[in-house]
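Let us practice reading a record.
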Amino acid sequence: MKRCVLIPLLLALFVVGVFPATVDTVSVFSKKMEKEIKTVVIKPQSYDGENTFPVLYLLHGYSDRYDGWVNKVPKIRELSDQYGVIIVCPDGAFGSWYFDSPVDPAFQFETFVSKELITWVDNNYKTVASREGRAITGLSMGGHGGLYLAFRNQDVFGACGSMSGGVDIRPFPNNWDIAKRIGSQRDYPERWEENTVMGLLHLLTPDALKIIIDCGTEDFFFAVNERLHDELLYRNIPHDYITRPGAHNWEYWSNAVKYQVLFFSEYFKSRQ
């Protein structure tokens, strides 16, 4: 009898040990877009409602959604526990590119992520409510978003990153709904210059942001990431740059995110 009771107890302890972090799925109202936006919030096991925790905003890629990261890389729950970090994964729509679109009022995702969502998270969770307690990164479209939003909102984020990011949109005028968000490159070339990460480097000064960039050597975004790395070196902007064999897929991102969370954890510790 004791043996029968012990087995389920051990199984329960095993399950708790695998994913002790708490996953909340919430709806955050965007006043600017006049709609609710689904968002996943991962709280570490150590979250007690009293102490404050730094927050990592983790963005999804084109055609994905708010629960893409937690479903496809469930290990991010363990990373939340390991480093004592709240991880927030907002919905960025099918192809927002995290712009405030001048074309479509239903796509105002810079305002949502960098202002409305930040305010909501700080009001509803025990966070380090300053740029020293916030980082942002993502994959592909979300990699663009991580750098784009941080470069343009340095008062909000203290650290940023990109995994396989579309860090220069200009070579891809017909791809991934970008033209739907900011107009065609032929008709609005200035918008394509102003809204690509490569066009925002003049906003940076050395050590203003902690930056990490990661891209696989077989990725179709590898060339633009190499160019970004070279330009940051030329401008004397410190950053971590990681490349390794790999393509534009979840196998690569599930590995890359481990290095990113470690990088941001070290940043948070240095600001305590």
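A brief commentary: Strands lie at 22-30, 35-43, 55-59, 86-90, 134-138, 159-163, 210-216, 240-244.
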